[in-house]
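Action item from last week, closing it out:
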Amino acid sequence: MAILITGILCSLYMFPFSFTFFPVGNTKIYLAVLGALMFAFDRISKNNGPVVSRTMLNVSLAAIAVSMAGVLSLAYNGATDTTYAQYVILMWVWVGAAYFVVKCIERVHGKVTLEIVALYFIGMCVAQCAFALMNEFIPAFKNIVDAVVEQGTENLNELDRMYGIGASLDTAGSRFACALILLGYLMVKRADDSKRMLAYIVMYLFIVVAGNMVARTTLAGIAISGCYFLYALWQGKSREVSRVFVYFGIMLLVAVPFVGYLYMTSPEVNKLIQFAFEYAFNFFEEGSLETGSTNDLLAMWTYVPTELKTWIIGDGYFMSPYLTNPYYVGSFDVTWGFYMSTDVGYLRFIYYFGLIGLFTFIWFFVRCTRECMKKFPVDKAVFVMLLAMNLILWAKVSTDVFFIFALFLMVDPVPEDIEQSIIEEKENVTA
């Protein structure tokens, strides 16, 4: 029961939403408040150590630099859109919520390791994929979710998109992609444990199929985890990767006929799979990888800044000016509803605070990556992949993945676990 409750808290953190009966804040903010109270209690009860660790000081300074880039753009342009000018506050909200979740995990398991946190993260992604399918095929369940959860349901239904409980569109896709990266890493790391690896592969395939039905951003996780398998081969882990591929092959022999049967016999499943793997169907049927969403994305990439000032310091607009500036008299994009007609992450950041802000934001995530690598010296590859995931994600949308870095930043690895991990790593290399 304690594990189930902790899992629910983790889901409320990863997939925040507001309640229809209490539309004030969201679950992430509620957890952040609880995290702040727990942190204060821990400081008072232990009465030792610095209030803020060096790790969080370094990350906070990088977040302050991002906010300052936003403030500079707003001051120069006379704009009022504070979306990223207050990023250091948004960062600390995530940190507070992550602190509460990690401490709950610690109280349940007695310690917190990278693998334990990763399994909670993965487990909640699997659960959200299941919830999305239940929403799609069980009307009574969907009615309950829609009655309780405020998550833009009307827009999602209008777009005819699957969604879970707080999990939809790119928000869900980015989480699912991160889960696939973690699973790919754990498969290789635990290749000698057949039962565990088999469970990881089952979860991986389930997220690949159901996750793509929700959001095709999930594909980025498939690509990065696939690259990790190649990297592991290059690192001399051919035995581990071979075992992963063998088990993958066995599971595909079971999964493909099952999914194929549903595809042929169920119109609803047929429609969902057509959407999830539209690029593949288009390739085999028309010889093209084009989809409606990729065509829209490519069109948005054409709206690049034309003024040098915008490239350097930005225009100070991230959201539509009609939402943030009552005195704005410029043109309004009726096609997409975004400033300068683009939802591409890199372009939106440039329009907001220029290359100065964009490079500062990238540096912030590099700093998060480095701090996590210091905490988990044996698992550095995970954080490099998550950083790559973030940079790839921005080619499509502006959502970032600090939510997962925050979880690992809140973990205090047990020295004995680090030593054991190093020993296991050396043994794997020797073998």
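Closing note: The CA atoms of residues 236 and 429 lie 7 Å apart.
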